[in-house]
Sequence to fold (862 residues):
Amino acid sequence: MAAFQTLNRDELLKIKDELEKEYEKIKGLGIKLDMSRGKPGKDQLDLSMGMVDALASDHSFVGEQGIDCRNYGVLDGIVEAKRLLSEMIECPIDNIIIYGNSSLNVMYDTVARSMTHGVMGSTPWCKLDKVKFLCPVPGYDRHFAITEFFGIEMINIPMNEDGPDMNMVEKLVSEDDSIKGIWCIPKYGNPTGITYSDAVVKRFARLKPAAKDFRIYWDNAYTIHHLYDEEDKQDHLIEILAECEKAGNPDMVFKFCSTSKVTFPGSGIAAISASKANLEFIKKQLTVQTIGHDKLNQLRHYRFFGNFDGMKEHMKKHAALLRPKFAAVLTTLDRELKDADIASWTNPVGGYFISLNVHNGCAKDVVQMCKDAGLVLTNAGATYPYGKDPYDSNIRIAPSFPTPEELKDAAHVLCVCVKLATVNKMLTGEK
Amino acid sequence: MAAFQTLNRDELLKIKDELEKEYEKIKGLGIKLDMSRGKPGKDQLDLSMGMVDALASDHSFVGEQGIDCRNYGVLDGIVEAKRLLSEMIECPIDNIIIYGNSSLNVMYDTVARSMTHGVMGSTPWCKLDKVKFLCPVPGYDRHFAITEFFGIEMINIPMNEDGPDMNMVEKLVSEDDSIKGIWCIPKYGNPTGITYSDAVVKRFARLKPAAKDFRIYWDNAYTIHHLYDEEDKQDHLIEILAECEKAGNPDMVFKFCSTSKVTFPGSGIAAISASKANLEFIKKQLTVQTIGHDKLNQLRHYRFFGNFDGMKEHMKKHAALLRPKFAAVLTTLDRELKDADIASWTNPVGGYFISLNVHNGCAKDVVQMCKDAGLVLTNAGATYPYGKDPYDSNIRIAPSFPTPEELKDAAHVLCVCVKLATVNKMLTGEK
Fold:
């Protein structure tokens, strides 16, 4: 197939005719597939079944600090869990608080606290006329939902291949003291799969924000979620907490992580990592908010993994299951879309997503057509604040949940829809 | 021993001398006991060991709705957990949302949401000049900590034997639209052990608050926490959600509960129950806040209990362990303090606490003297907003954690300190 842009109207009409037939055929197959969310597959969940046995009634529930993990107590997490997650998120053990089952909830809570109590003594944001967040795009819809829920104005920041446009970030942050944060997924980002370069992280650490309560919201969701075991095929991210300290900005970052995509989504453990000054401020709230998080689940995680090496070995098993899934989609995209030259996509070495950019103005049509054919994708626009992709171009592909076989079918459906929507757009554009 | 009030100065001095000797003897024993918090004893925790085995790797993790509880999904709880907790809290299954491990956290969250987003469309409380809560006293320090954290002004409401002073509640609530809530522990209250009478609950349901966003914060923490199995020795509380609906106030109450003192504190499941209109409003937040709570722990609870009857049977085992603990304290109080006529205390048939009222101005001294002798009690004042007991009289006794043997010692220490502090006060008062 030739590049669509080189074709004349008749050639396009012919292709449209073929694609429509293929699309009708697909619709008749009664496909029912979901690539909308970064949901681990059943095979991945099976990897962690040992965790449910890691605590049994004939085991001790007393942790190494002598604490009976079945009872009340321990606000910021048992030392076993702190050690495990601080290694995972690459911070000193004193710079972490272990939370409940959801890092999203920790991020929500962090913004909610800032609204009512400010950040380390700053004016509560609810008392300010305007609060803004920078949002590298495309990004994670659930981040944007949090800031939207609190009426925080979101400003799009374009993503380059090595991270957000730092010229824009530096300029905005230094000029506008109503900018209080930036959402980042610095490694194997959602949806781009991009990892921030050393230069980008160093520029982050050296920001000179006008607002003292500006924080980098560093959602390290995919920190150990490599697709390949070989180190030269893995991305490396500089640790920002230490980098901020070096740069004289020790308090400027909140790091978040969880085991949601390590053990069981919804039954993992989450954490925040930050400077001690930040954590002290957070604990003033935490002690009012709860008596403590689920220590049995913390102990269960520790007993299952033993140590961080155990966790890394476990992640290799995830990678082995995810690689063929990513491959199934990427191979199909290559085969069916490359020559037509109507779309571009990322080829990540970690994380949970492939980011697909189609012809401007076509993303919504593609997603709708896929849906009509039985394939559910993330809503078009979801990767942008307010659900508004200004180019109507970006589609997030989440290949983790279906089987590789299903993914081949799904990717074919997607490719047919991309081509058909593009041809339609090109033909309409010519009118 | 005669009533202290009938004694003259010389007689009091003699008693003081004896008590001081006894107190010095006690201090020499090196006692180390904690009656400060409502913490279940180790024997109680052992009752739930079957729960950790209720999910094992050879079990199915698919719930009756066909949901794999290991994966993401289900915002408001699996149906098994909803059924269990809705029976526990006596509400229809459609009037409940299952949360994470802590009802305190749900209450915090409920107030926090009202601060930033109001209640069912009302003005966010952070935009108001003044927000007030009514606080029946003595009450639960962690309730008061939440409202204090958000700068909400707290007004003491005296507790009668059948519940809060409803004349005062009705008057204040109907006159002042800055009063947005009242903290209630309606059954086996903390610390009084009192259960609200039918008449009190009916008056609650029929309140005519000036503020549309006024809610009753009904913390039903001890709803099935009887000390006796015989029904005629149990308190009965009218269900307030239905009562509010009957009275034309369907949206006026938030009910909270958890299994913290049913299974494992910190590893239980919690819930809010309210009208559908309230729950719809809450879900708009919840969907931003989290992808879902720990469904495996929800399933674990369901599988362990089977149904609500299983839970009630389980509570009888708790009661059997708690009864001798309460008895150990109450017997000692009776024997050592009754004749002196210097204190009064509650004799609850459920819950976790005994409320002790000593001579005005003596509570702080008693708690300090106990502490110096190795017995930790809840801080004096803790049962009042801002930690300020205007009479310096109330002491909360939490007899659940130590063994009955230890409790006998602890109660003796307490009685000696009460008597000594009282004699000291009486002698000083005479000067």
